[in-house]
Design a protein that fits this description.
heterodimer, A: alpha+beta, Immunoglobulin-like, Rossmann fold, 3 domains, 4-stranded antiparallel beta sheet, disordered N terminus, B: mainly beta, 10 strands, C2_SRC2/BAP (chain B), C2 domain-containing protein (chain B), C2_dom (chain B), C2_domain_sf (chain B), calcium (chain A)
Chain lengths: ~575, ~170
């Protein structure tokens, strides 16, 4: 795939006049490009500005003050450090407040580990430019590390870490503190809503009128273009007015960044024909709106005509241009809203006998994770930061305890009353100790687990604390209670919950796509209630050992969108 | 214990994919909400959004204690002024008043519309918030265990809650 324009008619799933249009490409959820295309992508480009200060304990000679400099690194999954930037050198100061700010892109879907090194610059280098400093010639004071999400989940958005020096043979010394403060860049809150219209588009389909849509891309410094947003497809319409589109300033750069607006005729084979294009910045578009004027589309013709441009009759109009500030995901998180993680594990017989190495539940004594463990730790390690107490409900389904009946929702920790365990490690322990005590059975039912999770979510509504729940269901087979699951999901759509379903093993998951309303029609229960928003995402995760976790991360990207959609449709504002 | 009479704050948001004789409607659709045959409110006609109309109109309607569902009808006025029913939906009161969720919670609900022949026709999107008289005490809920205790907390001094017996039973 990879053709970023090949989805179905977008915008059909706009819910309830709400301003969130969620739609994604019908296949390849791991295609990163897809996330740039739809208005929902506004939720993901959040720039954060970090500022640093420290208090360094003086060592030895009290007469000689420190000249500290801090260097900020991002730590990769492989442990490698990449320098993100360094501060200026503050002279003769053991409590430096550095002025230099560092901008990092916040990615909800990943654990972004930051490492800070503090050095004391030798007086002989004190006049050297910061960038030229050779760090290995300076005196290393200490280091500190944290995850970016640890900083932004603090109500103050600042975190104080202890500086340690690890190369000492004795236990790490306390060498002072470093405080990291995070500020969300203003651009991510500033939102543009636009309604675009075209007139007199040309025929592209031989037998009918065109099915036009607009693709908006920004041009980068290198001249390449990156798609940022796309409208819905208007069927059979030569004078289309598209549904509102949303862009945030962060996505496009600035109001002056040139944007390429291309109009295509939709083709179900993915090869859309260009109808015309125009280059305008947001500021230009605002002007068009103010003056009520149209802008003629041009069509770059073939090369043999000397790259001429053909001016068209067709014009682009801006029907609405509205600039507003919106609460961002981080506003809610810093305001004290928690994401509560819940997990449910499939113990049906199709997983295979857990004592045998080919079973999906085989627990390898060498520590190599089985697919279930892998998925829990990948998703859990990201979400755990957003829950203060880190008490996670953990269930299993589709198995019986030694001589009990088959249960479709039992507590993984073996307790009869308490479903919660402590932290991700607690889930792992509960899972590992449950496996040998269960006899795997069937069928595969999701209904009971979803209903239990919904009950927890609905009970949280009575509390004054904002909470949003994330239920991770890991399964190896297709569900047999499709109708009951639909009933449960339609009800859950009204609650603060999202459900991630990850399929492991080799089953054919075609039927499961029904649940992921992004790909199919909206879910409907037996008496005609329809899910008021998307809450389920499904991905197969077959290739567990390859190390490619982008599929799981893509689930989390959309989770942020579902969260905001819930908060906005419920008129819920960040606390504090 | 009976559910007391109360007021509903209903916002008629939008509808999707409305059709008449299989063809997308062009304009002039409107919605009537009834809590009883005599108690109803209607929206204005949507003239611009075709088969995906947007009304975004808020009403307050009384809900007598005996009512178990409210009806939503979407109609369309033709050029000659004739009103035609596009579709209707029955909304069980238990969907927005049940023992699991606090009263005053803003429910965001969608329903499949069905025409006179019970054929599927489009979707209606609503938000509904119930307002129960002051001094009404929420019944005790079943407790799942753990930290998730049933909430007997009050919002701004007003006790919240509705009896378990209301409506046709919840679906959880």
């Amino acid at each position: 795939m990879g053709n970023c324009c090949s989805d179905d008619y977008g915008g059909r799933s706009v819910v309830g006049g709400a301003t969130v249009n969620t739609h994604k490409n019908s296949s390849a959820p791991n295609n990163k490009n897809d996330f740039h295309l739809f208005p929902k992508s506004r939720a993901i480009f959040t720039q954060i500005e970090l500022s640093l200060s420290a208090s360094i304990l003086e060592e030895g000679d009290a007469l000689c003050k420190s000249n500290p400099v801090a260097v900020l690194y991002a730590k990769g999954r492989d442990g490698a450090l990449e320098e993100l930037g360094r501060t200026e050198v503050v002279l003769d100061q053991s409590n430096p407040i550095w002025i230099a700010k560092h901008t990092v892109t916040y990615r909800f879907e990943a654990v972004q580990t930051l490492v800070f090194y503090v050095y004391n610059v030798d007086p002989e280098f004190r006049d050297a430019p910061d960038k030229m400093l050779k760090l290995d010639e300076q005196k290393f004071v200490g280091e500190a590390t944290c995850a970016l999400s640890e900083i932004i989940t603090k109500p103050t958005r600042s975190l104080t870490l202890t500086l340690i020096r690890r190369d000492d043979s004795n236990s790490p010394q306390h060498l002072g503190n470093i405080t990291v403060s995070a500020e969300e860049c203003v651009g991510s809150k500033c939102m543009m809503e636009m309604i675009l219209r075209c007139s007199d588009l040309e025929y592209k389909d031989p037998f009918s009128r065109s099915d036009p849509f607009l693709l908006i891309s920004k041009t980068t410094e290198t001249g390449s273009s990156i798609p940022v947003c796309k409208t819905d497809v208007k069927k059979n319409d030569l004078n289309p007015t598209w549904k509102p589109i949303f862009l945030n300033i962060q996505q496009v750069g600035s109001k002056e960044t040139p944007l390429i607006i291309e109009c295509f005729n939709f083709n179900s084979n993915g090869r859309h024909d260009m109808i015309g294009k125009v280059q305008k910045s947001l500021a230009d578009l605002e002007m068009l709106w103010q003056n009520g004027q149209g802008e003629s589309l041009i069509l770059p013709t073939l090369i043999r005509y000397n790259n001429q441009k053909k001016d068209l009759q067709s014009q682009l109009f801006v029907e609405k241009f509205f600039e507003c500030e919106q609460h961002t995901f981080l506003d809610y998180i810093t305001g004290g809203c928690e994401l509560n993680f819940m997990v449910a594990v499939d113990f049906t017989a199709s997983n295979g006998n857990p004592r045998l190495p080919d079973s999906l539940h085989y627990i390898d004594s060498s520590g190599r994770q089985n697919p279930y463990q892998r998925v829990i730790s990948e998703i859990g390690e990201v979400l755990q930061f957003y829950d203060i107490e880190k008490r996670f409900p953990a269930w299993g389904f589709g198995a019986r305890a030694i001589d009990g009946p088959v249960s479709h929702c039992f507590n993984l920790n073996g307790s009869s009353s308490q479903c919660e365990v402590d932290g991700i490690q607690g889930i792992m322990r509960a899972y590992a100790s449950a496996v040998p005590h269960l006899s795997l059975a069937g069928p595969t039912l999701f209904g009971p687990v979803i209903n239990n999770a919904s009950l927890i979510a609905s009970q949280s509504l009575a509390s004054c604390k904002q909470k949003y729940f994330v239920l991770l269901i890991i399964t190896d087979g297709v569900i047999t209670d499709l109708q009951e699951t639909k009933e449960a999901l339609v009800k859950a759509a009204d609650l603060p919950i999202s459900i991630l379903v990850v399929g492991v093993g080799g089953a054919d998951y075609k039927e499961m796509e029904v649940l992921d309303a992004d790909k199919e029609e909206r879910l409907e229960n037996s008496y005609g209630q329809v899910a008021s928003r998307h809450i389920v995402q499904f991905v197969p995760f077959r290739d567990v050992q390859s190390g490619d976790v982008s599929i799981l991360q893509s689930l989390l990207v959309e989770l942020q969108v579902q969260f905001l959609q819930y908060m906005r449709t419920k008129d819920t504002y960040p606390q504090n | 214990m009976k559910r007391p009479s109360c007021f509903l704050e209903i916002t008629v948001l939008s509808a999707e994919d409305l059709r008449l004789s299989k063809r997308s409607i062009k304009k002039n659709s409107f919605v009537t909400i009834r809590t009883t045959p005599q108690t109803f409110k209607s929206t204005c006609m949507d003239a611009v959004n075709g088969s995906y109309p947007i009304w975004d109109e808020k009403f307050e309607l009384s809900l007598p204690d005996s009512v178990t569902y409210i009806t939503v009808e979407v109609q369309c006025r033709s050029g000659a002024g004739v009103m035609t029913l596009i579709g209707a939906a029955k909304v069980p009161v238990s969907d927005f008043m049940n023992a699991l969720m606090p009263v005053g919670y803003l429910h965001f609900l969608s329903y499949r519309l069905r025409d006179r022949d019970e054929e599927r026709n489009g979707i209606i999107n609503l938000s509904i918030k119930a307002k129960v008289p002051e001094g009404y005490v929420r019944p005790v809920l079943p407790i799942l265990g753990g930290r998730f205790q049933a909430g007997n907390k009050s919002y701004g001094g007003v006790a919240i809650g509705i009896p378990v017996s209301c409506g046709s039973g919840n679906k959880f």
